[in-house]
Design a protein that fits this description.
- Among the domains are: about 1-60, no CATH class; about 65-180, no CATH class.
- The protein has ten helices and ten strands.
- It has helices at about 65-80, 85-90, 135-155, 160-170, 180-195, 205-225, 235-255, 260-265, 270-280, 290-310, and strands at about 1-5, 10-15, 25, 30-35, 40-45, 55-60, 100, 110, 120-125, 130-135.
- The chain has a four-stranded antiparallel beta sheet with strand order 7-8-9-10. The protein has a two-stranded antiparallel sheet with strand order 1-2.
- The protein is globular.
- This is SET domain-containing protein.
- It comes from Leptosia nina.
């Protein structure tokens, strides 16, 4: 184990876990791991049911990265070309996390002709369109866009961080598929910011913005079901983010006389289930970690919501 002190405070630590290192890579992993703050022990758990004899997979790359970026990273840092099912599928298992909209026609989308070749041509799926571009041009384009995303990520949490991300999505919604990794990563951050920053706290959000947060959370969760299935940290965090707008929307409808008390009680079952699952997933994390702390909060919120339901 090697630790390094950073000016301004804090340490970063590198460690080798020989048994964990045995796990193979797949861009759709079936195990998750947690490193405990005390003693730096590592815990490994199945994210999904795994049969005896099945290979254990971690993902060495970021789950929300597109195929081009993941494969380049794996080749440069891990020295192998990934050929998993997700990488081999131009649609990334139907998620379209690498898909662009065609600027030449309205009928097709732009996909790689061979995702396992980073230099392969990208073509419009509409046979009558004929639009095509090179793999090199696509990599350059993604690099430029990623620079914009990096600038967004450098913003301090606040109103500007939300507004500039929404402007980014509006700017590129005609370029990328709604679930393209670029937009998805920005939406993931937005889902966490809405309800937490000045001017956009959960109590201040109008119903339309609460609905916006719900929409983004559901989109991310639906995508995670495919690329990061099972009980993962990201799923736990997003379930926690989803519960609050669902709860506030239900209560808003009740206050407006749009639903009865029985209907309100029924609507509150979904945010309760979100908290139950979020608490179960996140309480497995180190109690001092952000995820572990959120797991504790989710558990307390779950108990409070249960009490509220019992008194309705």
């Amino acid at each position: 184990m090697q630790s390094k002190y950073h000016q301004g405070g804090g340490f970063s630590t590198n460690a080798i876990y020989p048994y964990l290192a045995i796990a193979a890579h797949n861009c759709v992993p079936n195990i998750v791991h947690t490193i405990l703050y005390e003693g730096y022990e590592v815990q490994v758990r199945a994210a999904v049911p795994i049969k005896a004899g099945e290979i254990l997979y971690l993902s060495y790359a970021h789950a929300l990265s597109p195929t081009l970026s993941r494969r380049e990273y794996l080749l440069e840092s891990k020295f192998f070309n990934c050929e998993c099912k997700r990488c081999a599928d131009p649609t990334e298992l139907g998620t379209h996390m690498s898909t662009l909209k065609c600027s030449k026609c309205d009928n097709g989308v732009i996909l790689s002709s061979n995702p396992l070749d980073n230099d392969a041509q990208w073509n419009c799926t509409d046979k009558g369109c004929g639009f095509k571009t090179s793999g090199a041009a696509m990599r350059k384009f993604l690099s430029v866009i990623q620079s914009e995303v990096d600038q967004l990520d450098s913003l301090e949490p606040g109103p500007q961080a939300i507004e500039q991300r929404e402007a980014f999505i509006s700017k590129y919604k005609s370029v990328f598929h709604p679930r393209h990794s670029v937009l998805l990563s920005v939406k993931c951050t937005l889902a966490e910011l809405y309800g937490r920053v000045e001017g956009y706290t959960i109590d201040e959000l109008p119903d339309i913005m609460l609905g916006r947060k719900v929409e983004m959370c559901r989109l991310i969760l639906d995508t995670l079901d495919i690329i990061l299935p099972g009980e993962t940290r990201m799923r736990g965090m997003m379930l926690y983010e989803l519960h609050a707008p669902l709860m506030y929307l239900a209560r808003s409808e009740f206050a407006a006389g749009l639903v009865s008390q029985d209907q309100l009680k029924e609507k509150l079952k979904e945010p309760l289930q979100c908290l139950v699952e979020a608490a179960r997933i996140l309480q497995r994390e180190d109690p001092q970690s952000p995820e572990g702390i959120m797991g504790h909060i989710a558990f307390e919120s779950m108990a409070q919501l249960k009490m509220s339901l019992d008194t309705l």
